[in-house]
Design goal:
Layout (H helix, E strand, L loop, with lengths): L7 H10 L4 E2 H7 L14 H13 L3 E7 L7 E6 L1 H12 L8 H15 L4 H22 L4 H24 L1
Antiparallel strand pairs: 1-3, 2-3
Length: 171
């Protein structure tokens, strides 16, 4: 079952480790400004190490060995536990609840599914239902709104429509 106490950074680190063992320095590079996943979600080096400590304390990952670094102390490599594998599989098929999470968590999930070669279809279909319900609710509220509330709702309605269009294009 997906642990609701994990942050997006925790999930990103955990999901990356399902691809193979890695150390914090490697993770910081992958999620850095120039990293392959940093364009979706940036994680600063101290946050990476906090995530590793937390995930290990939750028994979702475990240290496997140490590796000599080019400079500095040896680097600890981590791997995902069976519980961590289960949690990531569930996280990858669970749609995000809020539109604002589409830019970060949903894109991360889609990226990890693509990296693993898994189809995003089930996630996208579930996400489409969630965002369609959000859009319906926003449109109902829009009909009875005025002034600043109307302006904010119009913004959110257009974001919901855009998110649904994005999902439809991927499907």
């Amino acid at each position: 079952m997906a642990d609701q106490n994990l942050s997006t950074s925790d999930w990103a680190v955990l999901a990356f480790l399902t691809e193979g063992e890695a150390h914090g320095f490697r993770l910081a590079g992958v999620f850095g400004p120039e990293g392959e996943l940093g364009q979706i979600w940036k994680i600063q080096r101290p946050q990476v190490y906090r995530a590793l400590e937390y995930l290990a304390a939750e028994n979702l990952i475990r240290p496997t060995r140490q590796e000599e670094g080019d400079a500095g102390p040896p680097r600890t490599l981590y791997t995902v536990t069976a519980a961590g594998q289960v949690a990531v599989r569930e996280w990858l098929r669970t749609p995000v609840a809020h539109l604002r999470e589409g830019r970060s968590e949903l894109l991360l999930k889609l990226a990890f599914l693509a990296r693993s070669g898994a189809s995003p279809r089930l996630l996208l279909k579930a996400q489409k239902k969630v965002f369609a319900a959000v859009l319906e609710s926003l449109e109902a509220r829009l009909e009875v709104s005025a002034d600043i509330e109307r302006m904010v709702l119009l913004w959110r309605v257009e974001n919901a429509r855009s998110a649904l269009n994005f999902i439809q294009q991927l499907l």
